[in-house]
């Protein structure tokens, strides 16, 4: 049972967090003001109906009192004329109108008290509405400032530092890697280059020696060719 309760609590918390992140203060404040306007309108209609009912009961109460006074005069007039039966009937009507007037009076007082309370409620709602309307502009301005500041901070911190910093770090790593590759490439090529030079120098020395040998042989041959032959002595016999 506790597992299901915890899952329910997690679900409710997740939904509440999602709703909180979706709520725009400006939009919600405007919606609250519209809700209050609708509520005030409904209370105004109810107050108007109650006031109309109050006036109706007051009018009926006043009419019943007027009939009571009228029947009282008629009772006295009938007695003065010796019309006892007529006076009795007028007196009975007077009693009925008195009871009706008392009933209308109670209805009027109840309706009047309810109308007074509803007027007070309406005034409280209107005062609260005016306060909320004044506060709404302040909250909307604060929300706009906070939103702008958040955007600026995000641009400065998020884009200016994090993104650019990561980009510079990546480029620095790439330059270091390029330098390392270049250095390694030079190290691998230097021995080969030195060997070629050494071999070339060796071959040059051998050629020079061979050329010197050939040249010496040619000079020697030429000297031998250019040397005069020895004279032949005459036979003295």
From TrEMBL:
Region of interest (Disordered), ranges: 217-237
Keyword Coiled coil: yes
Pfam family membership, one: PspA_IM30
Coiled coil location: 87-135
Keyword Lyase attributed: no
Listed InterPro entries: PspA_VIPP1 (IPR007157)
Signal peptide stretch: none
Annotated Basic and acidic residues bias: 218-227
Domain of life: Bacteria
Keywords: Coiled coil
Family: Belongs to the PspA/Vipp/IM30 family.
Name this protein carries in UniProt: PspA/IM30 family protein
Source species: Brevibacillus invocatus
